[in-house]
Amino acid sequence: MSGGSPKAPLKVRWIARRNAVFASPRFQYWCAKLPLVNRIARARAGEAFDILAGFTYSQILRSYVESGLFDLLGHGPVGHQHVASQLDLSRDAALTLLRAGRALRLSEEPIEDGWMLGEAGAVLAADKGAQAMVRHHRLLYRDLADPLELLRKDRKEPTELSRFWSYAGALHGAAERGTETAEYSELMATSQHFVADQVLASYRFPKNARLLDVGGGHGAFLMHMGNAFEDLHLGLFDLPEVAQAGAAILSQRFGAHRVTPHPGNFFNDAIPEGYDVLSLVRILHDHDDEAALKLLTNIRASLAPGAQLLIAEPMARTPGAQGMGEAFFGMYLWAMGSGRARSADEIAAMARKAGFVRTKAVPTPQPINASILIAFA
């Protein structure tokens, strides 16, 4: 602080001093000499390099997904010449890609020139939802080619991501045209399990409960819940053609007696009453504060005392998932032109402002996929 400003708080002064020490060449030399401190310093240096090289890592993964290399390695061991012929690469280029993936555990060479899936590769090769996200992220990469230019834009200006979500009809919380985009349908259907798995591991519905998924699209989340809880009645609220299509899919699986479609717009129409639990799955963070508060207020008006709103999405400032919240989703939603990542505390404050009596954060095994907040009417 300068001039006549008051003395900086202790925490600010401590961080400034820490940063000055860490930047000192003499301190770095000293760290290199002491074994215990050296291990810590090496770990910190590795983290810093991963930030620096992260874009390269993501593009290596993208190459594995888009080229079909995961499938080739899944039938391995295969030689790099075979990979080259299948991917239309030179032999040297194929070997470079295989070795790059080896460093990220996407590929592995257990015998000389015999390439197979690595540990991370085996997980990702089996996860169609993760692969759909990787393919989708090519749009974000284009928008982030010049991040400062992106941040200087008015958020109403079109971007690659905003064009995609506008075409899919999902930018404002309803996928009225999602069936027209194969990528949108695949992304929603295959990636929903990221959140559903966290809910199933962390939350138990009241017995014989009635669940209404608000903005539930074609029912992917409800499909997971219905499979896990046989006594759960499933309500789907979305725009008319989406709700009807989703309910038809759910009814075919569970029977019409367990499924109720509710057509409507969750901003302008009354939310159906008579449900014990309402869910907002990856919906709230898609909207700016004013719209998000309007949605929460509309939902609160439909709930009887004791009913619950289950909010499940990646949240900012979550221990163990900080990068996913404010870094990834912070930039992703900026590029999308709507919404922002919020912390559980921010969502709780917004829920109380909307009229909810209290809130409860529910820990999840993998907060990088989703955190859960329950708001009680």
From TrEMBL:
SUPFAM superfamilies the record matches: S-adenosyl-L-methionine-dependent methyltransferases, Winged helix' DNA-binding domain
- One Pfam family this chain carries? Methyltransf_2
- GO biological process entries: methylation
Which UniProt keywords are listed? Methyltransferase, S-adenosyl-L-methionine, Transferase
For this protein, the record's Gene3D superfamilies field holds: Vaccinia Virus protein VP39 (3.40.50.150), Winged helix-like DNA-binding domain superfamily/Winged helix DNA-binding domain (1.10.10.10)
User: Could you tell me one molecular function GO term of this UniProt entry?
Assistant: O-methyltransferase activity
| Coiled-coil residue spans | none
Q: Which InterPro entries match?
A: COMT-like (IPR016461), COMT_C (IPR001077), SAM-dependent_MTases_sf (IPR029063), WH-like_DNA-bd_sf (IPR036388), WH_DNA-bd_sf (IPR036390)
Q: What are the residue boundaries of the O-methyltransferase C-terminal domain, all occurrences included?
A: 143-356
Q: What is this protein called?
A: Methyltransferase
Q: Which organism is it from?
A: Erythrobacter longus
Give the lineage.
Bacteria, Pseudomonadati, Pseudomonadota, Alphaproteobacteria, Sphingomonadales
